[in-house]
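Side project, low priority. Logging it here so it doesn't get lost.
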Amino acid sequence: MMIEKGIRRKKLKSMMVAFLFVSLIGLASLLLINYHVVSSVKDRIVSEDEAALLDADCILILGAGVWNNERPSHMLEDRLLQGIKLYRNGASDRLLMSGDHGRKEYDEVNIMKQFAIDRDIHSEHIFMDHAGFNTYDSLYRAKDIFQAEKIIVVTQKYHLYRALYIAKKLEIEAYGVASDPRSYAGQEVRDFRETLARVKDFINVMIKPEPTFLGETIPVTGNGNLTND
C-alpha cells in the first residue's frame, strides 16, 4: 500500500511539473509574439501631419460597437472623427468604413457612413464594407475587394499594432493614426483580449485564409454609393 501511494505521489508530482513547464512555454510564446507584433510595425504609426503627406488610396476606419443600432459608441465616434479629420487634411479623398453588418438589426457601417455625411463628407467618397466582421477580414477585403494598395488605418492605438501587422503580412502598404482622445471603460479587459488576438492573427497571416465573404471588386477610386444597401 505504501509503495502504491509513493508511486501515485511521484506521478502527481511529474504531472504538476509537466503542467507548469507547458504553462511557462505558453506564456513565453504569448509574450514573444506580442512583442514581435508590436515592435515590427510601431514605426508605421504616424502623426496627423505625416499622414497628410501620404496621398493614400483610402482611410480605413475600423468598426466598433454601436448603441441601439442608432449611434456610434465612444470608441467608434473617436475613430470616425479622426478619420474625417484626416480626410479634410488631404491624407486621402476616400473613406472606407469597415464593420459588422451581418444582420439587419445590427449595422455598424451605415451608422458610420451617416455620421460622416452629417459632417459634410460627400456620400460618393464614402465606401462601406458590410462584411468587415473582424480586423483580418477588414484588411483582406480592403485589398481584395476595394483594391486599396496604400491605406491609412484609424483605430485606437492598442488595436493599431495588430491591424498594421496584418496589413504588412498581406502586403498592403499601411500606416496608422491612433484615435485615443479619451479613456474608455473596460480598457483593461480589451488589452488582455488583444494580447490573445495578436496570437490568433499571428497564425492567421501565416495561413492566409479567405475572409468570411468576398465578392465582386468595388475599387475605392470609384463611387462609394455603389456600396449603399
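Brief comment: Helices lie at 2-41, 48-51, 74-88, 108-117, 135-144, 157-169, 187-207.
Revisit when time allows.
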